[in-house]
Amino acid sequence: MDLTTSELTDSSGLTLVSDATPDGSVVAAPQLVAALGGENLSPDLRWSGAPEGTKSYAVTCYDPDAPTGSGFWHWVAWDIPASTTSLPVGVPREDSSLVQAVNDFGNVGFDGPEPPAGAPHRYQFSVHALPVESLGAEQGAPNVQARFAIFSQQLASTSLTARYQVSA
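-> C-alpha cells emitted (168 positions)
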C-alpha cells in the first residue's frame, strides 16, 4: 500500500490549501533555499473546517524522504490562535503571532527545501488543530519537544504535499 498524504489526512473536515505550493505541485522557487536560487520563504497556507474544541493551531513542514532515517523537519510553528485561519508567504522568524521551533537546519522558523541530488523529495505541509491555547513551549524550542506536544494532543490534522528534486 502506498501511503500518500491524501490517505493520511484526517476525516474531520479540516482542509489545507496554498496558492504558492498547491497539493501535488513542485515546490515553487521562492520557497527554496538561496543555494537553489530561492528566497527561503514559507508558503501561504489557508485552512478551514476545524473541529469543535479547537483553541489553537500548529503548522509543520516535513520531508519524509531525507536520508536521515527519520526525515527532516523544515518548520514547526504553534500557538496560532483559533481565530487565525491563514498564514501569508514569508512568515518572519520573529513573528509575535505564533511561536516557532528550531528546525533541523538549526534555525528558528522556516527553511525551504535543499534535498541532496537524486530522487524527488516530498514536502508535507500540515495544519494541526489543538485543544489548548498554548503548548507552553518557548520560541526556539527543539522541534522534537514541540512536535511531541502537538502530536500527542491534536484534535485533527491535514496535509498537502509538494515535491522537489535536484538532478544528479
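Confidence is low (pLDDT under 50) at residues 1-9.
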